[in-house]
Amino acid sequence: MDNVEFTTKRIGPVVAETRIAGLTAGDKTGILYMSDIHWDAKTCNRTLLKKHLDKAKENNWGVVIAGDVFDAMQGKFDPRRNMDELRPELQVGNYFDELINLATEWFAPWASIIHLASYGNHETSIIRHNNTDLLERWVYSMRTVNKSPVVKGGYGTWHMLRFMSGKKVGTTKKAYYYHGKGGASPVTLGVIDTNRQAAFLNDVDLVVNGHNHQGYVVGLPKIGLTERGKIERGITYFLRTPGYKASGIDEPFGFDIEKLSPKPNGSILVEFGINGDGSYNDRLSMNAMTLFE
Prior knowledge:
The chain is built from seven helices and 13 strands. The chain is of the alpha/beta class.
């Protein structure tokens, strides 16, 4: 909806706030959560990434990237380095500089809808081994060159979604996104992490994970008591975004075919709407839907 406006600011190193104004009865808007883009990898599915970013821009959705914008594994000191996997345009002496320049140029058409970008294990590895912060540099470049509203989050970030009713906050949804850790069992796909996180993440409406390139939406019920003694029931959504690095199951050898572990590509849209009667909080709906291929 063109009348809906997103305004995002960082209010702490790992806390961000997005104010969503102009959402009225019958309207819908959304935030497209993505991770593990690995934009510079030869196997990045840029066609699908562009399709989803175009869809987000067409519908005026905000975009949040929960880590691993970059693959960045071909640096001089990276033990995983394989020059065969380096795109031709990045085969230059100032590899990391050119990576930032090209990514800033490529993401320019969608700069206005990207609101948050955070660290993944690939970005933090570059800091440890190469003494440069690719995410910090890309966010700065997106803001200065492309006039993007994007702000930088942490490896894990609290994200307050404040829905405005006029000039006042009508209601707030609390989200937490975390890039992720470890692998994923071929049976559980990492879904077991939802119960682990539910045990210590207090009073949260939405939890987003990435990292293991699996994809799912799980809704767990929650019950609480308001200060006025009213019993509240709700759902906490736990999401896993798979990213855009294509599985190499059609290759003669490699991790994916040797482990026989194909994975989806895509993002997850969290859609918000205003419906029915009652308070703003009661009328606000939240649903999660996959954009997987």
